[in-house]
Design brief:
Number of strands: 20
Distance between the termini: 67 Å
Strand content: 15-25%
Number of helices: 16
Low-confidence stretches: none
Shape: globular
Helix content: 25-40%
Largest sheet: 7 strands, mixed
Structural class: alpha/beta
Radius of gyration: 22 Å
């Protein structure tokens, strides 16, 4: 018999392509060869499915593109259930575990937990920043998802920030920037394109003005994109106003970082002139819909989008359920305008979670939608559940009621890295156990034990 033409064929499911003007294909046939989508169609009742090395028949399921969670801190699972109620970012809060407290071994264990959670919930790519990136980047990538990672680039002494002491130290800046550039040299484009680096300038207030200029220069010289927190708190605004006499977006524009290769998380505390400035630059905004709302804030997403900003989604240090984040993004967007509008619908937030994220990463020619020729990253949701019945509108169900726990399969480059809700490459229980032990040790030290 001839060799099967395809490596994997999936039949029987409803497909949400995620391409512009999301197409819905009932009873779809999806064929994968050499890690890419090779054929996509509705099933022909008169023809058998094409031959493949493996066939999955999945009636009652819905397939989406893999989610791109483009602003995460996997290690901040260490403050889960606590940071949500502090009203401020963990790095700025005394009495809880801080990044500078985390040992390399602890970072390894905890980051794998955060990456595992994201992958089980359907993220096929995370863009992660925190500490010990040289160790955690390959550790997270071993799970099978795409990992873009970078250590926090800053020149502030973080040991003083949580108690209000802002000291910028040249040696810290040298160390963090050099580490990021070394990380890019080692991992950018590696692991068959599943790994990469964006220069993670932590925030305008944790980087001195001179150091931000160095980061901008490094980005220009290397061609690497930059990710940062921007206008995330009133403390940041006050600090930059006092230090530089302008708003954070004004500062980044002057330095040359406010451009269409910048991915900026939050953008909450922005004036009308800041919004116009951000829009003209065409930056990518990582909308942290649930995390912001939990902290009693909402980014002005409609105004940002109307001005020209490009909206994407991330979970930040909240739990990594992108289905829930889509739901929050839809809801808080509607609250802002006080209406349900035709231009803010489930397909809007699905695109933010998929193709728009791929554009922000410079990867939209490869991933972000299910189209022939693109790399075969996809997620299978099990709709054979009470809360997902009936399936009158598969996309509406996905955004309004689905949960990350409904994910049954996750594929990256056509490889099933999650199967029947379980990771295929790693021991889930071991990762949970080792991370819990590391986190317990951190909390003991943070409390003075």
């Amino acid at each position: 018999m001839p060799e099967p033409q395809y490596d994997l064929v999936v039949t029987g499911a409803t497909l949400l392509t995620g391409a512009p003007a999301t197409q819905v294909i009932e009873n779809a046939v999806i064929a994968v060869a050499d890690g890419r989508f090779a054929a996509i169609s509705a099933a022909d009742p008169d023809l058998p499915p094409p031959a493949a090395k493996r066939t999955l028949h999945l009636p009652g399921r819905v397939i989406t593109p893999g989610f791109l969670n483009i602003h995460t801190h996997a290690n901040l699972t260490m403050v889960r259930g606590v940071a949500e109620d502090l009203g401020f970012a963990p790095a700025y809060t005394p009495g809880i575990p801080q990044g500078h407290m985390v040992t390399p071994d602890e970072a390894y264990a905890i980051a794998r937990l955060g990456a595992l959670e994201a992958m089980l919930f359907g993220s096929t790519l995370i863009n992660d920043t925190f500490v010990h990136a040289d160790i955690v980047t390959p550790a997270m990538a071993e799970l099978g998802l795409r990992v873009w990672s970078c250590g926090r680039i800053h020149d502030v002494d973080f040991s003083g920030v949580s108690v209000g002491r802002w000291e910028h130290v040249d040696a810290i800046g040298d160390r963090t920037l050099e580490a990021a550039l070394a990380l890019a040299e080692r991992y950018e484009g590696k692991s068959q394109g599943r790994m990469g680096v964006q220069l993670a300038a932590h925030a305008p207030d944790t980087c001195s003005t001179a150091f931000l200029k160095r980061i901008a220069q490094a980005a220009e010289e290397t061609g690497l994109r930059v990710t940062t927190h921007l206008s995330q708190s009133k403390v940041e605004l006050a600090r930059i106003r006092e230090r530089d006499g302008r708003s954070p977006p004004e500062l980044l524009e002057e330095i040359g970082l406010l451009n269409d290769r910048l991915l900026a998380a939050h953008c909450i505390h922005v004036s009308e002139s800041d919004i116009a400035r951000i829009g003209r630059a065409g930056i990518h905004v990582a909308h942290i819909a649930k995390g912001n709302a939990t902290g009693a804030t909402i980014a002005p997403t409609h105004k940002l989008r109307a001005a020209g900003a490009k909206l994407t989604l991330g979970t930040d240090n909240m739990h990594a359920d992108m289905a829930e984040v889509m739901r929050w993004a839809l809801a808080v967007g509607r609250i802002q305008v006080g209406a349900v509008t035709a231009d803010w619908q489930p397909e809007t937030v699905l695109e933010m979670a998929t193709l728009a994220g791929a554009r922000a990463m410079g990867l939209d020619d490869r991933i972000g939608s299910i189209e022939v020729g693109k790399q075969a990253d996809f997620v299978v949701f099990d709709y054979r559940r009470a809360h997902l019945t009936p399936v009158t509108n598969a996309l509406g169900n996905l955004v309004h009621v689905a949960q990350g726990r409904d994910v049954a399969f996750v594929a990256v480059d056509g490889e099933l890295v999650v199967e029947d809700g379980r990771p295929t490459r790693v021991d889930e229980e071991a990762i949970r156990r080792e991370a819990a032990q590391a986190i317990a040790a951190l909390w003991t030290r943070a409390r003075g034990g």
